[in-house]
Amino acid sequence: MTEENKVNGETEQPTSVKADPKKQESPKPEDQLAEKLPPEQAAEKAAPKADAPVVTPAAAKPVVEKPAKADAPAVEEKPDPKKEEAERTLEHFRAKIVGKFGEEVLEESLLAKYQPTYVIKREYWRNVVEYLRYDNSLLFDYPEVMAGTDYPDKGYIEVVLYLYSMKHGYFITVKTRTPRENAEVPSLTPIYNGVNWEEREIYDLLGVKFTDHPDLRRIMMPEDYEDYPLRKDFSVWKE
């Protein structure tokens, strides 16, 4: 205000300041919506809502256990024709051996993978094998293989012989057992000359002496070797 205006008693009018459009507050979306709604709806929209009711979740349904299924009826196993045939063969030759020598000659008879197998007491070993070799109803003329196995936990060595009858087509296994200490079995070379080297091999590697063998000596190890490499307690580090 100038001095002249003060003297004349004039008052200065305040100058209006224009609002900055950038700083002007934008209307809220709900206010814009209310402007477009009819008056009664706008009033209803603007009125504060009452507290929403609390919805309690429904109680969980009780779990009902299903009754256990009844056990299915056991399925009857079908007989194995191969096993049945093997059992008949086992009993057939067992009856032959027992009928000739009596029950005391056999320690046991069993099927080993369908193979009829007879464990013959050592003192009857040669006699029973000779009978199997020459009896016309048997004629086990081909000794397929002969071998030995050590069973230290049972205290014996087992000699096994696989026999085949080329005339009748029979195939059986015969075994005998000897104590590990002073192991000794009657030789079968008088019956099957072809087991000569096999008995020597069992003697060489397991220490089983075959009585009446025509040439019982080591076949692989040196003659002065004092151990038996196929015995389970054998060790190259043993003093």
TrEMBL record:
<dbReference type="Pfam" id="PF00329">
    <property type="entry name" value="Complex1_30kDa"/>
</dbReference>
<keyword id="KW-0874">Quinone</keyword>
<dbReference type="InterPro" id="IPR037232">
    <property type="entry name" value="NADH_quin_OxRdtase_su_C/D-like"/>
</dbReference>
<comment type="similarity">
    <text>Belongs to the complex I 30 kDa subunit family.</text>
</comment>
<comment type="function">
    <text>NDH-1 shuttles electrons from NADH, via FMN and iron-sulfur (Fe-S) centers, to quinones in the respiratory chain.</text>
</comment>
<keyword id="KW-1278">Translocase</keyword>
<feature type="compositionally biased region" description="Low complexity">
    <location>
        <begin position="49"/>
        <end position="62"/>
    </location>
</feature>
<feature type="domain" description="NADH:ubiquinone oxidoreductase 30kDa subunit">
    <location>
        <begin position="119"/>
        <end position="236"/>
    </location>
</feature>
<feature type="compositionally biased region" description="Basic and acidic residues">
    <location>
        <begin position="19"/>
        <end position="48"/>
    </location>
</feature>
<dbReference type="InterPro" id="IPR001268">
    <property type="entry name" value="NADH_UbQ_OxRdtase_30kDa_su"/>
</dbReference>
<protein>
    <recommendedName>
        <fullName>NADH-quinone oxidoreductase</fullName>
        <ecNumber>7.1.1.-</ecNumber>
    </recommendedName>
</protein>
<feature type="region of interest" description="Disordered">
    <location>
        <begin position="1"/>
        <end position="87"/>
    </location>
</feature>
<keyword id="KW-0813">Transport</keyword>
<feature type="compositionally biased region" description="Basic and acidic residues">
    <location>
        <begin position="63"/>
        <end position="87"/>
    </location>
</feature>
<dbReference type="InterPro" id="IPR020396">
    <property type="entry name" value="NADH_UbQ_OxRdtase_CS"/>
</dbReference>
<keyword id="KW-0520">NAD</keyword>
<dbReference type="GO" id="GO:0050136">
    <property type="term" value="F:NADH dehydrogenase (quinone) (non-electrogenic) activity"/>
</dbReference>
<keyword id="KW-0560">Oxidoreductase</keyword>
